[in-house]
């Protein structure tokens, strides 16, 4: 498989460049990949990295689930009803454009430095994105198929499961992918500002100590986990639901 | 099965000033195969959508037997309108109630020669196969009225002939009241018990003609052609519709 070889080669070149540059600069602020790997191993053995990574992942799962399910429901409703859509359109624009930092600060100020405020802040940041994506998907639904379902008196559940959902699938996957990328970045800020555990909190500590090797080690861990989610959950899900395509 | 009476006093689209259909009545005797023939754009599809309850913005009434209601419909659309992400069998079964009998579907698949393809995704079917699946779906729900909106329109002639023959075979085994829309007079004569010719703006019935050719002679192209010539000679106003 030449493509696979190519991607391995590109990763090797990336590491080699990093190693070369770091050896050349010989600076405390750019450790070599070998040093990062050693720090990574040490942090794993001490249990620190798995713990903080786990806490952050848990927050990711909870806020992602809430944002996706709420966003899909509201998005479908807005896509199906012109009146609701024109009423809530302005609200959406406002929420889409409020900076993440503002929502986070407001949530902490209003609800205190608690877990639920952290989750709420992440959800409020992600929700408008999901709603807009799913709303556009719902507007593009094939009216002919919906008419067919109506005329054959499909139940609401059948329409949702067999007519609407398969058409929304690409939009949901799009929202999922951008959502994961967006949410974990926001979660780190949420943790940095108001939690005493998680990746964000740890990164904040390392920043104060100028411990770049640890920052990179944590980053590598997180990127790997996200990549793992993509490979083991999203890709197979995609393949399964797209197998009808020629 | 019950007779069906359709009355449409007025159907005007929001974007139009003139009504598309006005003062229109149509009665369908149970088990009858009726072909509606008219120029494209005269409102045939609008009529079918009203009957199928897909368009309820009109002034009129539909009576099935003694009841004021929309009949239970099997609709064969111009495009098959199958769910491409479901298999042939799933597409049929989804239209059925949850407690349907599986052998009905088996039997229909068999008649339509689709048994070997029942687990193929609808997206991968040829045009003719898709039409056959949509015919099965329409018969499987055991409707009070079968609506067909030019279902053979974009098929090549041999495929159209084949699907038409299969449709007739199925209909003779399982008689249903049929309302079939076409602008192909030969096709109408081959299939129908009764032809109804429609004018446009607003849509109205110009004439009704019973097809006098016995069912077993409908494959005889000469008989169909003779009937067509005779029809055009007797009703010169039909010519301009075609």
TrEMBL record, chain A:
<protein>
    <submittedName>
        <fullName>ABC-type transporter, integral membrane subunit</fullName>
    </submittedName>
</protein>
<keyword id="KW-0813">Transport</keyword>
<feature type="domain" description="ABC transmembrane type-1">
    <location>
        <begin position="53"/>
        <end position="235"/>
    </location>
</feature>
<keyword id="KW-0812">Transmembrane</keyword>
<dbReference type="InterPro" id="IPR035906">
    <property type="entry name" value="MetI-like_sf"/>
</dbReference>
<dbReference type="GO" id="GO:0055085">
    <property type="term" value="P:transmembrane transport"/>
</dbReference>
<dbReference type="GO" id="GO:0005886">
    <property type="term" value="C:plasma membrane"/>
</dbReference>
<feature type="transmembrane region" description="Helical">
    <location>
        <begin position="57"/>
        <end position="79"/>
    </location>
</feature>
<feature type="transmembrane region" description="Helical">
    <location>
        <begin position="91"/>
        <end position="111"/>
    </location>
</feature>
<keyword id="KW-1133">Transmembrane helix</keyword>
<feature type="transmembrane region" description="Helical">
    <location>
        <begin position="205"/>
        <end position="229"/>
    </location>
</feature>
<keyword id="KW-0472">Membrane</keyword>
<dbReference type="Pfam" id="PF00528">
    <property type="entry name" value="BPD_transp_1"/>
</dbReference>
<dbReference type="InterPro" id="IPR000515">
    <property type="entry name" value="MetI-like"/>
</dbReference>
<keyword id="KW-1003">Cell membrane</keyword>
<comment type="similarity">
    <text>Belongs to the binding-protein-dependent transport system permease family.</text>
</comment>
From TrEMBL, chain B:
<protein>
    <submittedName>
        <fullName>Taurine-transporting ATPase</fullName>
        <ecNumber>3.6.3.36</ecNumber>
    </submittedName>
</protein>
<comment type="similarity">
    <text>Belongs to the ABC transporter superfamily.</text>
</comment>
<keyword id="KW-0547">Nucleotide-binding</keyword>
<dbReference type="InterPro" id="IPR050166">
    <property type="entry name" value="ABC_transporter_ATP-bind"/>
</dbReference>
<keyword id="KW-0813">Transport</keyword>
<dbReference type="GO" id="GO:0016887">
    <property type="term" value="F:ATP hydrolysis activity"/>
</dbReference>
<dbReference type="GO" id="GO:0005524">
    <property type="term" value="F:ATP binding"/>
</dbReference>
<dbReference type="InterPro" id="IPR003593">
    <property type="entry name" value="AAA+_ATPase"/>
</dbReference>
<dbReference type="InterPro" id="IPR027417">
    <property type="entry name" value="P-loop_NTPase"/>
</dbReference>
<dbReference type="Pfam" id="PF00005">
    <property type="entry name" value="ABC_tran"/>
</dbReference>
<dbReference type="InterPro" id="IPR003439">
    <property type="entry name" value="ABC_transporter-like_ATP-bd"/>
</dbReference>
<keyword id="KW-0067">ATP-binding</keyword>
<feature type="domain" description="ABC transporter">
    <location>
        <begin position="6"/>
        <end position="225"/>
    </location>
</feature>
<keyword id="KW-0378">Hydrolase</keyword>
């Amino acid at each position: 498989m030449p493509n696979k070889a190519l991607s391995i080669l590109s990763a090797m070149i990336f590491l080699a460049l990093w190693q070369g540059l770091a050896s050349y600069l010989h600076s405390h602020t750019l450790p070599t990949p070998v040093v990062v790997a050693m720090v990574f191993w040490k942090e794993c053995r001490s249990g620190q990295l798995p713990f903080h990574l786990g806490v952050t992942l848990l927050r990711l799962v909870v806020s992602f689930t809430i944002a996706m399910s709420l966003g899909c429901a509201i998005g479908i409703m807005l896509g199906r009803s012109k009146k609701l859509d024109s009423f809530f359109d302005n609200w959406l624009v406002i929420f889409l454009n409020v900076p993440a930092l503002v929502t986070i600060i407001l949530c902490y100020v209003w609800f205190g430095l608690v877990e639920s405020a952290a989750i709420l802040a992440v959800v409020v940041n992600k929700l408008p994105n999901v709603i807009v994506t799913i709303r556009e998907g719902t507007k593009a639904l094939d009216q002919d198929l919906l008419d067919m379902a109506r005329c054959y008196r499909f139940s609401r559940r059948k329409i949702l499961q067999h007519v609407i959902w398969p058409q929304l699938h690409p939009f949901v996957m799009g929202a999922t992918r951008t959502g994961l990328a967006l949410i974990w970045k926001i979660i780190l800020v949420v943790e940095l500002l108001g939690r005493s555990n998680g990746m964000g909190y740890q990164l904040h500590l390392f920043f104060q100590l100028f411990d770049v090797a640890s920052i990179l080690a944590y980053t590598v861990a997180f990127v790997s986990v996200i990549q793992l989610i993509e490979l083991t959950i999203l890709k197979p899900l995609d393949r399964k639901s797209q197998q009808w395509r020629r | 099965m019950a007779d069906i009476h359709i009355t449409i006093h007025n159907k005007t689209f929001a974007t139009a000033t003139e009504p598309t259909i006005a003062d229109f009545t149509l009665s369908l005797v149970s088990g009858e195969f009726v072909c509606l023939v008219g120029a494209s754009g005269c409102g045939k599809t609008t009529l079918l959508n009203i009957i199928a309850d897909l368009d309820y913005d009109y002034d009129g009434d539909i009576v099935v037997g003694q009841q004021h209601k929309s009949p239970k419909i099997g609709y064969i659309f111009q495009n098959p309108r199958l769910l491409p992400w479901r298999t042939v069998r799933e597409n049929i079964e989804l239209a059925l109630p949850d407690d349907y009998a599986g052998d009905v579907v088996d039997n229909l698949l068999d008649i339509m020669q689709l048994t070997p393809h029942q687990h193929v995704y609808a997206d991968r079917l040829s045009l003719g196969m898709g039409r056959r699946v949509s015919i099965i779906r329409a018969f499987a729900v055991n409707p009070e009225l079968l609506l067909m909106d030019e279902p053979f329109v974009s098929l090549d002639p041999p495929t159209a002939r084949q699907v038409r023959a299969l449709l007739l075979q199925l209909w003779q085994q399982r008689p249903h009241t049929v309302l079939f829309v076409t602008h192909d007079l030969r096709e109408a004569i081959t299939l129908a018990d009764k032809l109804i010719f429609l004018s446009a703006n607003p849509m109205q019935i110009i004439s009704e003609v019973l097809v006098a050719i016995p069912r077993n002679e409908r494959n005889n192209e000469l008989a169909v052609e003779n009937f067509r010539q005779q029809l055009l000679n007797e009703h010169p106003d039909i010519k301009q519709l075609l």
